[in-house]
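Hey, I'm writing a tutorial for new members on how sequence and structure tokens pair up, and I'd like a real worked example in the thread rather than a made-up one. If someone can provide the structure for the chain below, I'll link this post from the tutorial.
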Amino acid sequence: MISAVAMVCAFVLGLVVALMGRSSFLPFTILASLYIWVVRGTPLLVQLVIIYTGLAAAGLYRFEDADFAGIVIQGAVQAAIIGLALNESAYVAEIVRSGLESVERGQHEAALSLGMTPGGAMRRVIVPQAIRIMVPHWGTPSIS
């Protein structure tokens, strides 16, 4: 259950980070690149220890047991979900980025020349081709 919830959160966060990395707004691009570099450059266990014990030791946040509709979620489980989601989102962002970049630039130019908006070209031409490339990589484990 922890893995499933973390993967859904990682997928959403990874899409946001990938879109930030492709943005023309330079601070978003730098922030996304820095996030991916730091998260992929540190071991998962170190990240989990920093999230669970480091935040509590620094007095920033302490994971307490939470009760959602009669279901008690332990603090350690919450920290594990957040840590795994943050770690995996960097890998998802790279998969999305590489999938979008793998589609030839001419496809985008052709869609624009047919009168599509940039968003429409991305949604109807680029993303369907990129998904075919991205899907197999989502199924392979990236954490070693």
